[in-house]
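Handout, section B. The chain below has 211 residues.
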Amino acid sequence: MSAPTLEVVRHPLVEHKLSILRDKRTGSMRFRALLEEITLLMTFHATRHLEGEETTVDTPLETARVRRIREDRLVVVAVLRAGLGMIEGVLRLIPGARVGHLGFYRNEETLQPVRYYGKLPPDIGRRSVLLVDPMLGTGGTATAAASELKEHGARDIRFMCLVAAPEGAARMAAEHPDVPVYAAALDARLNEVGYIVPGLGDAGDRIFGTV
């Protein structure tokens, strides 16, 4: 099962690095480095929509007409805490991008995500937004984050993750059909406690060594 908004970024380097991330023997330091590298590779793909502005530069030989993007027109928003591991991968390619953060916890009675932290650029509606979180499981947090961004005026939103479950991809497509989703892999399913299978475990724990 797939979803119409989901695009799996297929590249040998992405597949190779993801295979090492999945390995339970991969430690936190290596995990963080690989996560950053995969994010960088996927950012190249997920930012194809950015439009450059025409300008001129003086080369050693003559003046050339070139195109440059306005880096500050992109906002990368990390879903706390695991999304923090993807920020540097984006900034290595687009160092002038703005950075935002959204944090959610799950209400144990309603099982719905509740925002506990948010810090976004005030003019986010005028910028392209790249929302990042390594895992798209049930889709509860991702859809809540997209809704939060829209409430703050964002209209050009893309979601990027490493591993997606069919259930989460379908929920994103149903609730936010205008938000493209980029994943390094679409896995088989969610297990009975909501973990992606085969997945790579709890991304936050593996990033920060709290497993």
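Note. The radius of gyration is 18 Å. Compare this with the example in section A.
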